[in-house]
Amino acid sequence: MNYPLMPKATAVWLLENTGLTFDQIADFCGLHVLEVHGIADGEVAKGIRGVNPITHGQITSDEISRCEEDSSARLKLSASAVKLMKEQEVNNKKGKYIPVARRQDKPNAIAWILKNCPEITDAQISKLIGTTKNTINLIRNKTHWNYSNLRAKDPVLLGLCTQADLNYVSELAKQKLEAKKDN
What we know:
By secondary structure, this protein is an all-alpha fold. The protein has helices spanning 7-17, 22-29, 33-41, 61-69, 79-91, 100-103, 106-116, 122-130, 133-140, 155-158, 163-182.
């Protein structure tokens, strides 16, 4: 389930400005009911200023009014807030760190992919291994500065990607190739 950003600050604001029950606030903010009791008593979240979820677009005043009238109703995040959270989760993917000692293995992995999975595009290889398209082109054209010393090695065994990622990219590339052939 999705919860609002800064749940304790949101709970403080809801306690101070609405007639919602502790259960409703706890359920909406992803907190335990006793924690909400502690916030109301001033024992928990001392010094935390309340954050208005309405101005942050996480909930509407109509939703709060609906739940104030019916104590068994549960607050729901607005659709725009849920969409924004999902977009942020996707955008929070960071590039994986490759230790300095493993970076010289990237050209070997590229050579292996070019030899064993020719259907994978340069962009997919670049994303999978974490290299540049220029390096891929140099290896493909056999003009890489160290080409004579390259040995095609499986990128999974080198620790540059997972087997699941490699299989996924390979299947995706095969599907795109088949779709092009059908058209």
